Task: structure prediction
Amino acid sequence: MATASVPEIKTDKGFLPRQTKLLLGAFVILGAIGFIVFNALAGNQQYFMTLSEMKAKGDLAYRETVRVGGNLVPNTTKVDTKNVTAQFTLTDDQNNVLPVYYKGILPDTFEKSTQVIAEGKLDKNGVFQASLVLAKCPSKYDPSKIDWYSSTQPGNLNYSTGQ
Amino acid sequence: MRERSLAFYVLLEGFLMATLGTISIFVALVVAVYTTLAAVIGARRKIPELVGSARNGILAYATLMTVAIGIIVLALYTHDFSIALVANSTSRELQTIYTITALWSNQAGSLLFWSWILSLYAAIVVTRKWERDRDLMPYVIAVLMAIQTFFAFMLSFISSPFARWWVVNGQTVMALFPPAGAQGFTPADGQGLNPLLQHPAMAMHPPMLYLGYVGFTIPFAFAMAALITGRLGPAWLRTTRRWTIAPWLFLSIGLMLGGRWAYDVLGWGGYWGWDPVENAAFMPWLAGTAFLHSVMVQERKGMLKVWNMGLIIITFSLVLFGTFLTRSGVIESVHSFTESDIGIWFLSFIALVTLSATLLLFTRLKDLKSERDIDSLLSRETFFLLNNLLFVGAAFAILWGTIYPLFSELVMGNKLTVGPPYFNQVAAPIFGMILLVMAIIPLIGWGGATGAKLLRKLALPFAISLALGAIVFALGVHDLIPWTAYWLSIFVIVSTVSELIQGTLARRKNTHEFFTTALRGLIERNRRRYGGYLIHIGVAMMAIGIVGSQVYATDTTRALKPGESMDIGGYTLKYETLSPDFPSGEGQITSATVGVYQNGQRVTTLSPSRGFYPNSGETATTPAIYSTPAADLYLIIAGWENNFATVTFRAYINPLVFWLWFGGFFMIVSTLIAAWPDARDTARARAHVEGLARQAARA
Result:
């Protein structure tokens, strides 16, 4: 390698050995990264909860931004294309309901999704003002949940393997 | 009648093929176990025939996996819906290219793909450089095939690609072998592929990611072989370095393509969302990058030996962890297309691999002593160490944010999540520091420099970058953090370019060549070093693109009737026509035609579109993009009303995002320059092999 031939210069004249300085330096860097992580975590963590957990937490969702996951109630989705807003209702297996208002474009997978995650705050009318909406559609991509048999069309080739 | 018998034939053939595929995988499992044992016993008892047999075992495994994957691809291509994998992820209407790429859209297919790629890598390892690393090879084989045993086991018993649907008491179940009283069942048509995955990038992005991910197994295997044999000299390190740069390159390409896919498909104007699945690919890249740098310190100075071993173990563990994250669905992710129960198997495997590798490392600690102490704090070694701390620190900060929901639920009982703000807040200072190190490192020599000399070398690049920083300020960047990020990126480019110019001028003094010829000569003389510098320039360009598009993006949303227009970022967008419901593949595409005007001149026409996929009832938004080096105009259809009477458009201006893609491309080309085997390296390797041969002849 054509590195410039820098003469070896011993500059170890401080009161600490070089290795110790190096270790100290490394600790300072790691400490700084640790501090950055801790600081960012403190300022940005949000509760992620179900509807009933949100209910149990009382007024928490009025005070701070939370993430809430629930099942989309069919036929409650209303999209105002002109103002780019959307409303829908979430529910869970304990029959809690949560109306959600979202200013933004719903994700492409939303219309067929059953599970929805919304991030935001409750307003004083009990409407969840979402700043972010994520949609999951397990029904489609979890094949075990597909009712293949009843969806068969006439003329299907059923065959047994003889085993 | 004839048609019926033909259909019967196709079915019978499909059945035979699936059986052959299943058998291939079962035999592969046996081969994997045998090869692992043969390699270990052959090496310990010094039986060359047994080691040779293990080598053939690697080739046999690769052949068996190729047969299995070939059969699956054929089944996908011929729409053999008797195989559940085919029925679950494709349909008759799906375009041919996506019927093949559907292979890695599901769990069993992607596990098979993983194992197949590793088998090919392993075959290359044992056929190409057998002589050079013959002492390490038996254990390399053993480690690789122990890992393959896990995958072959999963493919045989937990997640078989040849499983089919069965009907028992009116219920459908997916299994390889028929449950009692079950009847085989073949749907008439498949479920189709997730529309989001029907994109050209999806044909390239996952294979590249897998080539990267899986490729990191090879350096891991060499590292483990070196630890087991105690042959911790320079040989394993050289081989390992070579085998790290290739997967690193593939992973870089995979990450870039993934970003591009998100930008082109997800329709929110972004390319990176700090999603767990994205992080899963990014973390091994960070650890691998750290290794590629610190390995140079070990090669030159014989230092950081334990650290380098640790990095290889960390990188490979992160690869396995990433595969687990992507496949298990344990953490909420918008990208996790599969949720499954293979998580516990993977977690046990990761624990086993990481623990045994770490234990092995501890048993060899005394052989991994540094050959010398650091000479000077102001040296390239120190800066490499700093770079390593930052890269590994970044990887752990990202890991922490990614697993935080799991951790908080287990430890505090509340599920807490962190989103992009956490990651941005963490990444900005760490990557800023990395840029600073990148700016200084080309100007600082191995062994050490005096502060005065370094300052002299830094003065000019520093002054130029400050002058350019002043221009950036004048152009309107008045906030401290974005300005600092721009300035640091510029500083990296200026100082690296100045190092290239100085090297070229020095060369020209002797050769009297043209400047460009001298520059080429300089890079060719030392591809690894100057290729590395070029990579840095690419990264700095990407940083500029990231800052511009993350900090200064704007958007506007308007509902328009045909003939109406909207303004954004100096452009006027005129909505002209709409062509609804045009059939294409599995979907029906509705696209709009929008004229783009700047200063009254028509500059381009954009056609954003929205696809509707009746199979799944889903929609997919496709943006139209007008890209210039200054900014991208990014336009999507947000929706429509009253039977297409008004269409709502959302337009984004993404400043400088062009430089992200161009910088990424530049980085990848530069990696090729750096990694291309140069003549001296090849000659050295040949001499080494010949030396070994002479030794063997004497013995």
In short: The two ends of chain A are 67 Å apart (CA to CA). The mean pLDDT of chain A is 74.
